[in-house]
User: Fold these one by one.
Assistant:
Number 1:
Amino acid sequence: MTEREHLERDLRSLGPTVAWPPTPDVASRLELSPRRRRALVAAVALAVVALAAAFAVPQSRSAILRFFHLRGVSVERVGTLPRAQELPLAAGLGSPVDDAGALSVLGGPFLPAVHGTLYGRDGIVSTLLRGPVLLSEFGAPEFLKKFVTSNVEWVDVAPGVQGLWISGAPHVVFFFPGASPRLAGNVLVWATDTRTFRLEGRDLGRNDALRLAREIMGTSKG
Amino acid sequence: MRRARRGDERAFAELVRMHQEIAYRIAYLISGDEGEDAVQDGVLKAWRALGRFRPGAPFRPWLLRIVANEARNRRRSSGRRAALALRAEREDVSGGAAPSPEAAVLAADERERLLSALEGLPDDARLVLACRYLLELSETETAAALGVRRGTVKSRASRALERLRESYD
C-alpha cells in the first residue's frame, strides 16, 4: 500500500468518528399542515437570503416555528412575540423625497404613478393612502423581518405574482435595519422580480388589500 | 420521484429524508452554524425547482448542488469563514460494541491529529477531502457539492492529499 493509499484509508476511518451536529429534520418540516405547507411553497417562489444579522434579535426566542421568505420579507412564526412598541403608521418613515429620489432608490418609478407625499429611508419608499393604509416599496431584496403569531395566508395578487396576507393579532415588524421593532396591523406583502410591496392597515381587510394591490400592479402595466 | 415532480409534497419529503443527513453535513462543512438554515432553504428551493429536474437523473447530486450553493451564499453574505467544530470522538463510536475495523485503524490521538491537520488546510483542500473521504461522496457528488467539474475534483483532491501528507507527517 502506498503512502497516499494509507492516508486515504486513514481519512476514511476518520469519517465515522467525527462528531457531527444532529441533523435537522427538514423533511418533516415539509410535511406540515396544508396552510403552512402552502405558505412554505409560497416562500420558495421568491426565496431570498434574509439579512438576519441586520435584524439581530435575542436568541431567547426559543419557540421559533421556522420561517419563510418572500423576497425582501422574512416572516417567522413564533410562540411569543418579541417586545415592540405601538407607533403611528407614519412614524419613522424618513424624509420626504420627490419622484426622482424615489426612482433612484427603487430602480424604477414609485407605483402608483399618482400618489401623495413620498418618504424615503434606508432604501424603502413609503406613502400613506386613505384608510389610513401605509404603502411601502423597496427594491433591495433584504429589508423586512416579521414575527407573527397571527394568521399567514398565501394569496394570488396577480397572475404570477404571489403574496402573503398576515392578519388577526398584531405582529411585530423590524422595518429598517437597526430600527426598534413595532407592532403592525394587517399586512399584505407581495413581490415582483425587482420590487417588494407592502400594504399595512389595522382595519385593512383582505379583499380591500388585494384590490389595492391589483390597482397598484395595474398601474405598473400601464 | 415521479410523484414528487407531480407536486406531491409527501413524496418529496420522503426523498429529502433519505438525503438530508448528507446534505446537512455538506452545508455544515461549508457554512458552519448557518448549515441548518442553508439546508432548509436549499431543500425549499429544490422543491420549487423540481420542474427543472431532468427525469432519470440522480436526485442526490442535484439536491446536494442546490444545498451547497445555498450554504456558499450564506457564508458569503455572513462574510465569515465557517468555524468548523468537528471533533473526533474519543469514545468508541459504536456505543460500547467492538469498534469497526475501519474505526480501529487509527488510535484516538492519531484521529485527533489527522483531523487537526485536515482543519488546517485551505478551504478548497479541506472541503474536497471532507467530501471524498469523511462523507464518502462519489466524485460526481463531490463535483456537484463544490460546484466544479469532476476533473477538478480529481486534481484538487490529489493536491490536497499531498498537502495533508506534508502537514500530517
Number 2:
Amino acid sequence: MELLTFPFMQRALIAALLTGLMAPAIGTYIVQRRLALLGDGLGHVAIAGVGLSLLMGWAPLPVAVVVAVLGALFIELLRQRGRATGDVALAILFYGGLAAGVLMAGAAGKGAGNLNSYLFGSLTTVTSGDLWLVLGLAVVVLVAALGLAPQLFAVCADEDFAKVQGLAVRWYSVLIVVLAAVTVTTAMRTVGLLLVSALLVVPVATAQNVFRGFFTGLAGAMALGVVVSLGGVVVSFHADLPPGALIVLGAIALYAVSWPVSRLLHRDHPVAIDDTVAERAHETTGEHADHAHGPGCGHRPVEHGDHLDYVHDGHRHAAHADHYDEH
Amino acid sequence: MSPARPLEVTHLNVSLGGIPIVKDVSLTVGSGEIVALMGGNGSGKTTLIRASLGLVEHQRGDVRLFGDSLVGFKHWERLGYVPQRANVALHATAVGELVASGRLSRRRPFVPASKADKAATTAALERVGLTHKRTEPFVHLSGGQQQRVLIARALAGEPDLLVLDEPFVGVDVATQESLAGLFAGLRDEGKAVLVVVHELGPFAGLIDRTVTLVEGRVAHDAVGHDHHHRRPAGASRVIQGVEAPWSS
C-alpha cells in the first residue's frame, strides 16, 4: 500500500475511479444507440483541444473539454438533420481533429512525445487543478446519467415512443453526446484519448453478457469500469507500463471471460416461440430411450406456447404422457 | 358541452421527401370507439398515424388531440402509442423495465417512480398476461409476447387514446384473440382505439368504424367492419370531399 503515500498516485487513483464510474455509465446509452465508436471520434476531436492549449500555453484539460463538447454538438446536429453523408463528415471531423492537434503540438515545439501522455494516459501528469475539474465534471455527468436514467433509457430504446410520451427527445439526444464528450476528455489523463472509447464500450458489453436488465447492466458496467481502471493504475505503477493500455486490455480480458460465463448462465434458458397451430396431428417421436429431456440434458429448450420443447437432432420434442411428440 | 373527441384529423396533407403520401384525409376517433385503419402497402396508413401523433410534420390540414392543437400539446399522458415491433432497439432490456418506461409521460425528471407508477406497470403486465415474464430479456420473447409487451408499455401510461401500428403482424391466432378481448375491455372503459391492420381476423366483430386508404386518400369510411363487400345500404359511403354524416 506504499503507493498510496505518493500524492501523484493518490491523484491518479481518484481520477481513475471517477473515469471508471463515468465512462461505462454514459457508454451504456451510447452502446444502446449503436454509436459505439462515437467516443473514439470525440477523443480525436479533443486532441485538437490539447494541441491548441500546448500552442497557447493554456491548461490542456479545460480547452479539450470545450473543443470536444463543440465537436459533439456538431455531430449530433448532423445526425438529427439526417444527413446521409454524415459518415464522411464525421471522418473529416475526427481526422481533422487529430491532425490539427498534432500540428499545433508540433508548432508549439512539443512534438509527439509530449502529446503521447494525452493519447495513452500517464500517471504522473494529473495535477491537483485537473483533479478538481475532473471531480466537478464527474459529478455533473453522474447526476445526469443516473438521475435521468429512465428518460435516457426510453430515448435510446425507442425514440418515437419517447416523443409520444412528450419527452424532449432532441434535448436528451444532445445531452447524451455532450456527456460523452465530457467523459472522454476527463479520461485523457488516465486512459488517454485514443483508448478511452474502449472504456465506454467494453465494460458495457461485458455487463450485458452477465447481467439481466438495462439498469442492472448499467450498475454492473460501472462496477467493472472501476475495477479495471483502478487495477490498471496499480499495475502501471508497479510495472512501469502505460496505464491506458493496461486498463483497456484488462477490460477486454474481463469481456473474454464473460463470454463463456454467459453461455453457461443462459444454456438452459428457453427461447420462446408462438404456438401457431390450434390443433396439431399427434405424431410421436418413435424410439426415445436414450434419456429424458430436462434442465441440463444438453438439448436447447424452446418455450412453445404453454409448454417446453427440446431441440433434438433437428426436431422439437414435446413431452406427452410417457413419450415425446414431434412439434 | 360534450368533451372533445380524442382524435380529430381534418383535411390532412403529409409529404415525405417532397412526395405527397397522405392527401386531404379527415378522420375522427371518439371515446369508446374502435376505429380500424386499413389499406394496402404504401397507402399511407403509417404516415397518417405518425402525423396524427406529431412524429412527422404535416403540410396542410389540422390535427386535434382531445380538442388541443398538436403545436404546444401538453397532455401526452392521454396518448398510448404502439409502434411497429421491428423499430424497437433493445439488447438486454427486461420486460418490466420496458413496460415501466410507459409511465414517463406521467413522471418528472430526477424523481423516482412512485407507488402509482409501479402499480400501473404491474397492472399493465397483468392485463396482457405477461406478469411471469417481468424479469426476462425482451429479446428472448416470442413475436406474440413482444407485441403484448409493447401494448403493455402503452397501457402503463393509462392513456385515453391508444394508437397501434400493425399490432397483428407476425402474431399467432391465440394472441390476436386475447388482444381482441383486451381492446373490447378498453372500449367498455370509454377509451378510444385507432388500429392499423392488414386484415381484421378475430378483431372484426369489435370494430365500430373502418377507414380504408387508397393511395393516401380515404376510399371508404364505413360503419362496422364491412367494407368493399356486403356493406349494408346507407351505412357506408364513398367519400368525395364530403364529410360522412357520423363524423360531424
